[in-house]
């Protein structure tokens, strides 16, 4: 196999005496279509396979200490089952390949809890406008994605998009208790022209969310009203007879009436 001869040549150039001495291996730009099994290099941490013609990865089954892997600029169409045994991986370059299945690709990388840097750009799956938030949500350890830092706002947006149920629960927490509905949005008491313009510009964006939570918000509002009611009773003095009326013969009077007042 061509890759075996190239590997032996690299080991000789680097002066490695035993396989356990090998911590890094450069096999980039060698015209390789496949790579022999690398499990003999138990201490391998850095591996360059970039700029080759590799279409399938079968050489990394027992290289568990690998920290950096460069597979960019190859002919990979699918990585399912080929990278899941790399729990220590921190840097993974998969850009400039032919990966099309976003969900399968992310599923393969989920076990990499130390993954910090990931490149997926210039793959067909990167044409999906929502692929970045999908990756951010499912691979929470990634800090640098496609050469751009992952922001706190992107994490919030990803959480809201892919976990709407939990988002609704978080938004519904109030008065020290959790409810199963979202709280109604407060409306401004005074309408201004600038506020009207702002609402018009955001109207289309917020319309779906408002329709979605409208019924649930009404239920929560009703519950909130019931919880916040204060009431007290007072005597209605207008229903009591005067002292002169009390002693008039032949007159009867209704019992004193009480009036209940509710405050919200």
TrEMBL record:
InterPro entries: Leu-rich_rpt (IPR001611), LRC72 (IPR042655), LRR_dom_sf (IPR032675)
UniProt-listed PROSITE patterns: LRR
The name this protein goes by in its record: Leucine-rich repeat-containing 72 isoform X1
């Amino acid at each position: 196999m061509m890759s075996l001869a190239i590997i032996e040549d690299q080991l000789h150039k680097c002066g490695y005496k035993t396989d356990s001495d090998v911590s890094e291996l450069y096999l980039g730009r060698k015209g390789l279509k496949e790579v022999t099994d690398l499990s003999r290099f138990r201490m391998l941490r850095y591996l360059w396979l970039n700029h080759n013609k590799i279409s399938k990865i079968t050489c990394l089954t027992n290289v568990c200490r690998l920290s950096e892997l460069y597979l960019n600029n190859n002919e990979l169409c699918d990585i399912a089952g080929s990278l899941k045994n790399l729990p220590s991986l921190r840097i993974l370059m998969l850009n400039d390949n032919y990966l099309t299945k976003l969900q399968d690709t992310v599923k393969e990388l989920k076990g990499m809890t130390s993954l910090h840097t990931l490149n997926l750009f210039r793959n067909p799956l990167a044409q999906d406008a929502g692929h970045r938030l999908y990756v951010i949500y499912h691979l929470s350890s990634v800090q640098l994605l496609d050469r751009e830092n992952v922001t706190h706002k992107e994490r919030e947006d990803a959480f809201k998009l892919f976990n709407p149920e939990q988002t609704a629960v978080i938004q519904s927490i109030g008065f020290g208790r959790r409810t199963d509905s979202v709280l109604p949005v407060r409306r401004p008491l005074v309408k201004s022209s600038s506020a009207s313009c702002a609402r018009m510009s955001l109207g289309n964006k917020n319309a779906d969310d408002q329709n979605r939570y409208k019924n649930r918000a009404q239920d929560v509002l009703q519950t909130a009203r019931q919880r916040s009611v204060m009431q007290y009773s007072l005597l209605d003095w207008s229903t009591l007879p005067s002292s002169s009326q009390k002693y008039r013969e032949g007159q009867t009077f209704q019992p004193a009436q009480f009036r209940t007042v509710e405050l919200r």
